[in-house]
Write a structure and sequence with these properties.
The complex is a heterodimer of chains A (115) and B (378). Chain A has 5 helices and 5 strands. Chain A has 115 residues and is an alpha+beta fold. A 3-stranded antiparallel β-sheet of chain A has the order 1-3-2. By secondary structure, chain B is an alpha/beta fold. In chain B, strand 9, helix 9 and strand 10 form a beta-alpha-beta unit. Classes of the chains: A alpha+beta (115), B alpha/beta (378). The interface between A and B is medium-sized, with 27 and 33 residues.
Chain lengths: 115, 378
Amino acid sequence: MTYKIGLVLDEERLKLIKGTKLEKELKDLFGGALKMIDVEITEEQAKKLMHLFPRVRIDARGYVEETPIVFRRELFKAVLSKATGKDAIDEILQSEKINEIVKLAKTEDEYLPPP
Amino acid sequence: MTREDVDFVLNQRRLPNGYIFPLPIIFDVDKDEIKKMQLREGDRLYLRLKGKPFAYIEVEEMWEFNPEEIAVKTFGTPEKNSDALKKPLDEKHPGFSIYRNMRGFAIAGKVYIINEPKFKEPYNRFWYPPEMSREEFSRRNWRTVIAHQTRNVPHTGHEHLMKEAAFMGDIEPCRGILVNAIVGAKRIEDFVDEAILEGHEAVNKYGYIKPERHMVTFTLWDMRYGAPLESLLHGIIRQNMGCTHHMFGRDHAAAGDYFDPYSTQTLWTKGLPSYGFDAPPYDVEKGLEIRPVNVQEFFYCPRCNEITYSETCGHNEAQRFSGSFIRGLIAEGIKPPSVIFRPEVYDVIVKWWRVFGYPFVNKRYLMQKEEELEVEVE
């Protein structure tokens, strides 16, 4: 079974995907007010994420939610360079970076700078 | 509650006098501490809040219980309650955990407040005990009032739910919409209570629902997340406050996927025989008077180009926006679009984010809340 992680694109991220194949994968949400790309994630990968980040859950739509911000930032970077979502997520899960991501994710619970 | 009260509640979902009551309310204490005090039945036990006396209990009974047994009997089992429960509750269920972690020794008796605590800002302007809420409804000339139960800041789906549910009414649309937020034990990543109350207030303050038709209040209660059972308690609370109707959506007062997501709506349309309700709670002897308005889903439809309702939109292109989706946007510093989240409600979240350094409940907020509470005692 596959699930999805929705990556919302702000203006900065939209600039970075301009001219890439990701542009074709953009989804309009809420009448174009939000742009998103869906990154496919396997069940096994989702389980690994739920183990690393206890708050991660799969919602009724089949989206993997409550992933830490630091993970989503890394995922976006990986998605820019990899062919598939599975590869992008594997790149993060199998790299040495994952320990740093887990450590940083814990501090997100303490303080996030307000806009 | 006495042992007899609890037995009646667990076996019949009623008090000994026959009126509906769905969940045991147990004042559990440390048995050794009570023994040291040499407390006896008939004594008066004074209670302190923030170190100051605020109430006393006339001790009617002291009794021992098995917390695990109470926890299981409170919610039921899939075997016994197959009309509502899909899987057995466990420690991961926050309500089950409340009962399971009790100390096994209870004091029962009537409670008398002697030094009424004062609510701090912003809670004070949302506090309406039943006598006050009824007076306010009368002042506003609200002949019919529909209750909206919440533990969350409102997105536009909630706003539409309130508007449409009030319109369903009975003979005529409900005159008033009462938002009654449950303030109590929080979970990590909930929105903070201050943002929930002021967020709902922003809905009427900025005219999305006329202030004359919409009012925000709260009730102090640690949710048991008992879905249909909790809905009975909600019916009792809001009926006491003067409400004539109560809206119920999918997964009302639930946590996780233990209960059937429509069990509350089933209770309020047909009954749940396994919990002793062969008919809806307003249609049984010594039942409730408050009437349900069972509502389905609201979502954004790109073809309708608006927030629409699952039972009327025929396009099959629903774009849903869950609480966790909106939390994800907020945490990333992305302002949710106004079609799903009013900018003034977002401003309220940012206001309290600046106060607490984090937009949601975290360990620091919980510790602060434990120490400071929502009240001062003089």
